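User: Design a sequence. Structure:
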């Protein structure tokens, strides 16, 4: 299932497809682990969802499909309310063999939430190879916009600063 793009980016800023800017800086931060159907969220604006890598699970121990199903239901509720969010993968202080495993986990998450139009995109994790991460997620999610705080990634202008 391919979703139509609802957002675009340039000059490190996010825009609705009609050209209206969508403010990103100071987006309310919620922990994805706390986001289940019925979770109260701020009344308006773009949301930033911090997704702990271990919450998704790993290929070795299996993915946390129960969490991913509840997370999808939460994102569908956002969609029904006309709300949007971007996902910030977090692997700080956690052990994993490589950025490839982090990328694989986020790619798996993206597959589980593929029909959620509320998802604008993902932040590029510092622990992953940026080009590989974006390539892997764009394979099936060409509409995703990518976010970062890394000056090197922001240099081309298409990555949104958050």
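Assistant: Done.
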């Amino acid at each position: 299932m391919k979703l139509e793009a609802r957002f675009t980016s340039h000059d490190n800023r996010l825009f609705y497809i009609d050209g209206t800017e969508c403010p990103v800086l100071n987006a309310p931060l919620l922990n994805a682990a706390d986001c289940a159907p019925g979770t109260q969220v701020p009344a308006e604006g773009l949301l930033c969802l911090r997704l702990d890598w271990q919450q998704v699970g790993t290929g070795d121990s299996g993915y946390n499909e129960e969490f991913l199903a509840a997370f999808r239901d939460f994102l569908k509720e956002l969609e029904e309310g006309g709300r949007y969010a971007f996902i910030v993968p977090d692997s700080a202080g956690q052990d994993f063999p490589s950025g490839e495993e982090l990328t694989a986990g986020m790619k798996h998450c993206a597959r589980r939430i593929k029909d959620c139009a509320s998802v604008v995109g993902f932040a590029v994790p510092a622990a992953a190879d940026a080009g590989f991460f974006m390539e892997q997620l764009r394979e099936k999610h060409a509409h995703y916009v990518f976010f970062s705080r890394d000056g090197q990634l922001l240099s081309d202008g298409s990555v949104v600063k958050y």
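Helices lie at 53-56, 65-80, 99-112, 130-138, 151-154. The chain has a mean pLDDT of 91.
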